Amino acid sequence: MDIRKEKFNSWREYSNVTASTNPWSQVYKLVTGKTRSNSAMTTLRKPDGSETSNIQETMNVMLDYLITEDREEDTLHHKNIRKTIEEPIKTSDDEEFSHYEIKQTIESFNVKKGPGIDGITGRIYQ
């Protein structure tokens, strides 16, 4: 009985302190089931079987796996493919944007909307 009473008192104290500063705080999220778990990947298994120990090492392992370098055993065909994909594609249909087209596009931005992923609003562009 004492444990239940202490749990209740602890929850009440936590709720009162947290809710007094922000009514949509962690307490509200817990009660309504709207808490989010942090799903950031922090470790990977390296080729030697060990795991990475920090985010920098994790990123290096990912980059080493995803971006490969030319190897001696690669054929000329493979090296040419890698060289080709690094060059921009130019076709006869490619045309430069005119100053008028750029100006019209920027003027069409709604300055009352919030910023996009880049954090830049339409007002800043204008």
SSE blueprint and pairings:
Blueprint: H1 2-21, H2 26-32, H3 55-66, H4 76-86, H5 99-107, H6 122-125
Structure description:
It is a single chain. The chain is mainly alpha-helical and 126 residues long. It has a domain at 1-36. It has 6 helices and no strands. The N and C termini lie far apart (66 Å). The protein is 50% helix and 0% strand.
List keywords for this structure.
50% helix, 126 residues, mainly alpha
What kind of assembly state do the chains in view correspond to?
Answer: single chain
How many H/I helices? 6
Structure class: mainly alpha
Shape: flat
How much of the polypeptide forms β-strand, as a percent range?
under 5%
Q: What is this structure, in a nutshell?
A:
This protein is an all-alpha fold and 126 residues long. It has helices at residues 2-21, 26-32, 55-66, 76-86, 99-107, 122-125.
